[in-house]
Design brief:
Layout: E1 4-11, H1 18-27, E2 34-36, E3 40-47, E4 50-59, E5 64-71, H2 79-88, H3 95-105, H4 124-133, H5 139-153, E6 156-157, E7 160-161, H6 166-169, H7 181-196, H8 213-224, H9 235-244, H10 250-253, H11 257-266
Helix pairs in contact: 4-5, 4-7, 4-8
Length: about 270
């Protein structure tokens, strides 16, 4: 099947803090799957088992991203693919409403970051794998493990790689990865479960040994695009709350808990 290309423009309502989106992605970039420069982000993708890739270039003066898509899907830009690119870049967030709610509810003073968006993974499985690899390690260590995983198990696509699918990871021993045996077993269990039940929600992963609330919440936040996931058990969040002297009332953070999490992660 021949590769087809398509150019399109995706708009958003400002503010949109591209520099912090870019910084977040850069620290977690999966070399081979993703690419990044000063004004653009791109990655490989799989939709319905068909590979492709896109590059989105930010045009801040127009409040848009210019997107170049290459895929074997016909037509080349089905609605679900375009919707997923919008979700990955968090283009549909109502930043004005989110910022007003968080700024008026919590004492961020002059440290509040307007227009903060949440960069997301291509799908929930990828987010779950990243979360498992990130259990009890630093961001840099988790990123290194993810890159190693992709190099060993990700299928090649042109001059890049695809993020490994559940069938590629199910049953693997992951001897190449330097991490505890139990975490390797957890990763294999997650892959087998998602292969057997591809439509299962992350909440159903809780039955799997080695997967707890933090892993599920992270997968929902960055995989599903859920707007109200507050990672109260995250070490970075706990440290920022202590430094700010904030006590989060769970009834007040709704419906923007995910964005509160990102505010705390980004605060200096």
């Amino acid at each position: 099947m021949a590769i087809t290309t398509r150019e399109l423009t995706l708009d958003y309502t400002p503010p949109y803090d591209w520099e912090r989106v870019r910084t977040f992605i850069k620290k977690r970039l999966i070399v081979g799957v993703e690419w990044l420069d000063e004004c653009s982000y791109g990655r490989t993708l799989t939709t319905g088992g068909i590979p492709g890739r896109f590059t989105a270039t930010h045009r801040p003066r127009e409040n848009t991203f210019h997107v170049h898509i290459e895929t074997k899907i016909h037509p080349p830009c089905p609605d679900d693919l375009v919707a997923n690119i919008r979700r990955v870049l968090d283009l549909d967030a109502n930043s004005a409403a989110i910022d007003e709610h968080l700024r008026s509810t919590y004492r961020f003073a002059n440290r509040f970051i307007p227009g903060l968006r949440i960069p997301r993974c291509w799908d929930v499985f990828e987010a779950g794998v990243r979360a498992v690899l990130g259990q009890q390690v630093s961001v840099s260590a988790a990123t290194h493990l993810t890159r190693e995983l992709v190099q060993h198990y990700g299928a090649r696509y042109r001059n890049a790689r695809l993020f490994p699918s559940p069938d590629q990871l199910s049953g693997q021993l992951f001897d190449e990865l330097r991490m505890p045996h139990q975490r390797k077993a957890t990763l294999a269990r997650l892959a087998a479960f998602c292969l057997d039940q591809p439509q299962a929600r992350p909440e159903q992963w809780l039955k799997l040994k080695g997967i707890g609330p933090w892993t599920i919440d992270y997968a929902r936040l960055r995989g599903e695009g859920a707007a109200d996931i507050f990672l109260s058990g995250d070490l970075g969040v706990k440290r920022k709350l202590a430094a700010l002297g904030l006590n989060i009332d769970p009834t007040l953070r709704h419906p923007w808990g995910s964005y509160l999490t990102f505010q705390l992660w980004h605060l200096e």
